[in-house]
Amino acid sequence: MAEVKTTPQNWGERLNNFEHWVNENQKMLMYVVGGVVAIVAAYLGFTKFYLEPKNEEANDQIFMAQKWFGQDSLNLALKGDGNFPGFLKIMDDYKWTSAANLSHYYTGIIYLKQGKFQDAIDQLKDFNGKDKMVTNMAYGALGDAYSELGKNDDAVDYYKKAAYHFENELTSPLFLKKAGMLLEHEKKYDEAKKIYQEIKNKYPVTNEGRDIDKYIARVEGSSNS
What global pTM score does this model have? Predict the structure, then answer.
């Protein structure tokens, strides 16, 4: 096929056509540009004059709830004491702030400790983690909640997410071991062995790695029986 060459005349025709189209659709273009400008201005205004002050206020308010959480005063952490709000009120009063987001995590952990496993799942799934370690712990807590509900496949998935999202010697072998034990419980011995072997290879000096040989031997024995 012969190549179509672009000549100055072609460019001139295209430019004339474009100018003609702009002139014909000038009113529509003004509406589109105006709409985009309005959206950008609204977003910047919302961020600057609402969200930033709300974030600062919420970060001040969450301090006591975090303190109560650290002291294991779970009801106070959830509901507050009348002077300082708990995580539930922070979520309601400071929507879209980082403190409200973090409150979902804390509330999920509290519900997990209280045995409210589905409530814990709902809250933890609403948490949008940016810190890798906190996100790991949220995934691990989801694994625990699903495990308590007997939903072992979901639990294994979240334990693996917790292990691999941010690999480290503190939490990764712990969550891998939990996944392996659930797989072993489900009689998925080959999958369990693979995970136990990964702990042995990657994390040999951790608490989980030092005694993993007996878990490997156990699944090998079970798969051969």
Answer: 0.78
